[in-house]
Design goal:
Radius of gyration: 23 Å
Strand content: 15-25%
Distance between the termini: 56 Å
Structural class: alpha+beta
Shape: globular
Strand order of the largest sheet: 3-2-1-14-13-12-11
Number of helices: 13
Number of strands: 18
Length: 460
């Protein structure tokens, strides 16, 4: 009897210690989120943290609507941005498992006539952003209503940037095209397929395609900063807000259900998830840290499978740390939000192993010169002879939307070496670049001949 009492007492004390520890973590997360919201001028944030398969933190901060002072709740509905791409990729892989789509089939099999430059593009290329397709052109009218056929026709008119599988370049139009293909294969709008095969079976009751006309409880408003002042999001046409590159309404509560489905394999076989979460292999045998609708990286040796989203005054991010059985989900309603910093900052608080550790910089002068080189590249004033011919072509392309976007971020606050490795005689560098509202990463490789053979900016 005494042993049973001691055991009961031990369990009570252990539970109490655990509760105190959890309360301390939540307090630290609250402090971090509130400080970042103030620093970044974010109206509202919705946060979900899942640890060991169970929700650890699910709460809202700030306001979903500033004009009516409506607070953010776990039920608050945000726009997905490109976080929606993982749903499109999953839908495609479901159809692959059913034999209705072939990963290595040419997209012309599903679309019919395509431009000659699209002749060798496969489904795999679209999923992994290696098709050579680019993005919405600068003259694309986001205030005009389009049919799917009209958007596809417009996409066909845009020159490809490279041959399929040759390089990696983010392409929203590639995922728009995947949505069209899902429709042609299933005979229904891709959003209906999402509802029938993913949202309803998983109990994601509020997830749906964006529809600004419908009355949607708990819908947040999106905002942007203009000269430091908060303004409402800019209007786009209803049909532009229904494409498969990221046009979903999501909540933190529904994303917890989504994470559970990913963890337990409810929707796809393990082999399909393995394919989605593996770096894509390019034609030359090298890989790029992106799978199908997911970015792939590591922090202090721990795997990270993640994706961010940005659209119409909203930011979203899901970061999954499978080795640590941790997932962090973030939604915010300000266009300038650094959502990756929020998600990864929370992860580092919950699990100290996931806090990015600075490394000693063996060549601070080289780092300083690399920073100057980046600025020169963005201003189109770099000495191109320092790069290989392939990279020269990329950095001199004035249609690079990422470079154009970076110029709008303002001055660099810090430029820090966070990883360096040597492989096959090549030196690989990874730098973290902090701006006031965003973190970016520069991946750079110097080959055996001293030429820069990789020079790529990536979001967190």
């Amino acid at each position: 009897m005494k042993r049973q009492l001691n055991l009961a007492l031990f369990l009570i004390v252990t539970a109490a210690i655990s509760a105190v520890g959890q309360e301390s973590l939540v307090s630290k997360v609250d402090e971090f989120i509130k400080a970042e919201m103030q620093k970044q001028k974010i109206p509202g944030v919705s946060l979900a943290v899942v640890k060991d398969g169970r929700p650890l933190i699910v709460k809202g901060y700030g306001y979903a609507n500033l004009e009516h002072q409506v607070p953010v709740k776990p039920e608050t509905v945000f726009q997905s941005g490109s976080v929606g791409k993982q749903f499109t990729a999953t839908a495609v892989m479901m159809l692959v498992e059913e034999g209705k789509i072939g990963l290595d089939e040419k997209i012309s099999k599903y679309l019919g006539d395509v431009p000659e430059t699209w002749a060798n593009i496969t489904i795999r290329h679209l999923l992994s952003h290696t098709s050579g397709m680019t993005d919405y052109p600068t003259d694309f009218d986001f205030r005009r209503d389009y049919t799917e056929d009209e958007i596809l026709k417009r996409a066909k008119e845009i020159p490809v940037a490279f041959k399929p599988g040759e390089k990696w370049q983010y392409s929203n139009l590639g995922y728009v095209t995947l949505g069209v293909i899902i429709g042609k294969v299933t005979g229904k709008f891709y959003g209906e397929f999402f509802q029938e095969r993913m949202f309803k079976p998983l109990g994601m009751t509020t997830s749906r395609i964006i529809n600004e006309a419908d009355l949607i409880p708990n819908r947040a408003s999106g905002y942007r900063l203009v000269n430091g002042e908060v303004k409402n999001q800019e209007w786009v046409s209803p049909t532009v807000n229904t494409t498969a590159d990221g046009s979903l309404y999501l909540t933190a509560l529904d994303m917890i259900k989504w994470d559970e489905a990913l963890m337990t394999g409810k929707l796809l076989k393990k082999t399909s998830f393995d394919e989605m979460w593996s770096p894509i292999k390019l034609n030359d045998g090298t890989t790029h840290p992106y799978g199908f609708g997911w970015g792939i990286r590591s922090v202090n040796g721990h795997r990270v499978i993640e994706h961010g989203g940005a659209w119409q005054g909203f930011k979203a991010h899901i970061a999954r740390f499978p080795d640590n059985k941790l997932t962090v989900i973030v939604f915010a309603n300000l266009a300038q939000t650094n959502q990756g910093k929020l998600a990864n900052g929370v992860a580092g608080i919950i699990d100290s192993e996931l806090k990015r550790k600075p490394i000693p910089d063996p060549e601070p002068e080289f780092t300083a010169k690399t920073r100057e080189l980046l600025l020169a590249v963005l201003d189109a004033k770099a000495d191109v002879t320092r790069f290989t011919p392939e990279v020269q072509k990329v950095i001199t392309d004035q249609k690079d939307r990422l470079a154009a976007f970076v110029k709008t971020l303002g001055d660099i606050k810090s430029f820090e070496l966070i990883a360096q490795s040597v492989a096959a005689g090549e030196i690989n560098y990874r730098y973290q670049i902090e701006y006031s509202g965003m973190s970016l990463f520069l991946e750079m490789t110097v080959n055996k001949g001293g030429k820069i053979s990789r020079f790529a900016l990536q979001p967190e």
